[in-house]
Inverse folding.
C-alpha cells in the first residue's frame, strides 16, 4: 500500500477552573502559554497593556486568548503573569489586561505552536464553585 495512517495529535483541549472571571482569564492565559513553552521558564520582564471586549464572558475569553496569539505571532512574546480587571460599558464586557513575559528563547523549551483558538466545543460557564472554561487549541 503506498500510504498509511499515522497517529497524530492535532489539537489540545484546556480546562480552566477559577473562583472569579478575572482569574479565569489569567489562568487560561497561563494555560495557553504552558501549551506553547515551559511556563516556569518565562520571566515576567516585559509587560504590555491592552484591552479586549466581548458581548459576554465566552466572547471575552475567546478575544483575550486570540490577542495573546497575536502577541506570540507578531512579536514572539509569551506571558507568564496576567493582571486583569473587568468593567462593563454599554452591552460589552471589557477586560483591561497587563500581561508580563518575554520573547521566546530556547530556554523556554518551545513545545506546540498554537495556530488558533477554536469555537468548536468552546464554552464558559459559572456554577456554585466558580467559573469554568473548556477551550480547544488548534495546533
Amino acid at each position: 500500500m503506498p500510504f498509511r495512517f499515522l497517529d497524530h495529535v492535532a489539537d489540545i483541549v484546556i480546562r480552566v477552573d477559577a473562583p472569579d472571571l478575572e482569574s479565569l482569564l489569567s489562568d487560561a492565559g497561563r494555560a495557553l502559554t504552558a501549551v506553547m513553552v515551559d511556563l516556569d521558564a518565562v520571566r515576567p520582564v516585559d509587560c504590555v497593556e491592552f484591552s479586549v471586549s466581548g458581548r459576554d464572558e465566552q466572547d471575552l475569553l475567546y478575544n483575550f486568548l486570540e490577542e495573546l496569539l497575536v502577541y506570540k505571532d507578531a512579536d514572539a512574546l509569551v506571558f507568564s503573569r496576567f493582571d486583569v480587571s473587568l468593567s462593563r460599558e454599554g452591552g460589552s464586557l471589557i477586560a483591561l489586561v497587563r500581561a508580563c513575559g518575554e520573547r521566546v528563547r530556547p530556554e523556554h523549551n518551545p513545545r506546540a505552536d498554537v495556530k488558533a483558538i477554536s469555537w468548536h466545543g468552546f464554552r464558559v460557564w459559572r456554577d456554585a464553585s466558580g467559573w469554568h472554561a473548556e477551550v480547544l487549541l488548534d495546533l
User: Anything to note?
Assistant: The two ends are 29 Å apart (CA to CA).
